[in-house]
Amino acid sequence: MFITNSTYRTYLVTDSTMIPESSTFIDQVTESIMGGASMVQLREKTLSTRDFIERAKAVRKVTKEFCIPLIINDRIDVALAVNADGVHVGQDDMPAITVRKILGEKKLIGVTCSNPEEVKQVCEEGVADYIGVGTVFKTNTKKDVKDPKGCGPIGIRKMLKVLGDHNRTAKKEIKVVAIGGINHDNAGSVLYQCSLPGLQSLTGLAVVSCIMASEEPKYATADFDRYYQEQELPTMDNLDGETAQDIVKMIKGVRSNSPLVHHITNNVVKNFSANVTLALGASPIMSELANEFEEFTCKFKNLSLVLNLGTPIPEQIELFKSAMKVYNAAGHHIVFDPVAAGASLARLQCCKDILNAGYVSVIKGNLGEISALLKLTSGYSSTERNSINRVVSRGVDSVDSEVEEKDIFELGEAVARDFKCVVVITGSTNYIFDGICLSANVRSPVRIAKVPGGSKLMGSITGTGCSLGSTIGAFLAGCATDVNGTPIFIDPFSAVWGAVTYYNVAGSVAGKIGTGPGSFMINFLDCLNDVEKLEPILKEKKLFGNFTEAP
Ligand code: 3NM
Fold first, then answer.
1. 350: annotated active-site residue
2. pTM for the complete prediction?
3. Looking at the domain 244-548, which fold is it?
4. Would the CATH topology of 5-228 be identical to that of 244-548?
5. Per CATH, which fold does 5-228 belong to?
6. What are the Thiamine phosphate synthase/TenI domain coordinates in residue numbering (predicted)?
7. Are strands 195-196 and 200-201 parallel, antiparallel or unpaired?
8. Where do the DSSP E strands lie in 180-323?
9. Tens digit of pLDDT for each residue in 478-488?
């Protein structure tokens, strides 16, 4: 049998306990294969040996007809009895080395891994053809998983890093499928988020209940194919180059489209963030009513979500997660502000839960906050991190004087690459990193933009950091369509650069007028609102190629 990467694409793992009443086990498997299942693992935990063999023979007949591999879970004897194409073992089953000795070189061997150490061991043993990494998300199908909550894309990427390092130099590439809680709601983002561009991505997805329990297993399987097509990352070639250079055009887009910027944010800054959003010409909404989120995403094209971790409570984290699901499904941008991420392990855990629950287009924070997130990355991007490791978040204020610029570059790049998003590190100079427009196969450079801070007075009133999140949200949503409401593609990096630049130019102009924090706040809102006043300065600002240093 000819095994390629696409052999692993939609890997059906069977379970006979969840077949719909109107169907039979073998019908479910056959239909799934007809829908495009590219590999089948027969997984039976309660059948007698004799019944297991009978079932394996029946499935073998179908897999043979469709020329796809049949893998037997755990039972080497059953695999031998029916001449299956391979065996899949877990960490407590027969060691892969022993399986290889029994089965010989021609059969496929898969091993389940739940952490980087187990991946490392499989790589060192060098006998497996593929690994199954998981559990990605909570699943009801397997009860004895090591991490019932799921390791999420963050955990999967840490395993991919170990595998990718191995595969880079190995004679034989070990393939990898993700498993656990994968369904049609999350398959696209699993493929997108569980990859390290230029190093390692998933070869396929392994699925049980989403197919085995489906009334329409053929279509349930076929649907998985389209998620692979969606995995094309945007590249520099398909950007709207003209708009990407023109902040005035962007802010005018915000004003004419009047986007809705949905905030779930902390109580301290709600008022100021709403005023900043209004001053930009966008509409703020501070909704925490989960039932209406889907209505927003159906109703509005120019919409974004700003999640701010300023005053977290468990209910709010759950609200974040449900909002993310709705916004991700509708394809609207999400801006995440990991306020004081490094202040405690509990807060970092909140960030981990949030970033595992879905995809955010932008992460905005100060140096302390972004360096805390470094702990959630796979480490595939960075080499040395000495001075970054010295940075400890001190509440919401970060210390940037001790850190060299090259370390800031390394930090931003690492977080942007891992989370495949735009990262903004705020401070007296703002740094923006593009982890979105990367090539999937080669290690392409991360675009970096540098924007000078606006005014020292911005630090004298509360909420200027958080309201930058609102501004980014307004620009992303404002640039999502042209004035006629037709969707246009402007890359998030350019929109974020436009937002950060506009915000700081307004701050700089306001800072020169006022005498103290009170008047500054008012002048700042006025300046944000006065495009004509800022226009001459904005016209000077350009994104230069790969790197911009604003004059
Ligand atoms: N192995 P579903 S999770 C068979 O984590 C299996 O190793 C897992 O089922 C692992 O697609 C799992 O229905 C069950 O969530 C996955």
1. no
2. 0.91
3. UDP-N-acetylmuramoyl-L-alanine:D-glutamate ligase (3.40.1190)
4. no
5. TIM Barrel (3.20.20)
6. 11-210
7. antiparallel
8. 195-196, 200-201, 204-207, 260-264, 283-285, 303-308
9. 987 777 777 77
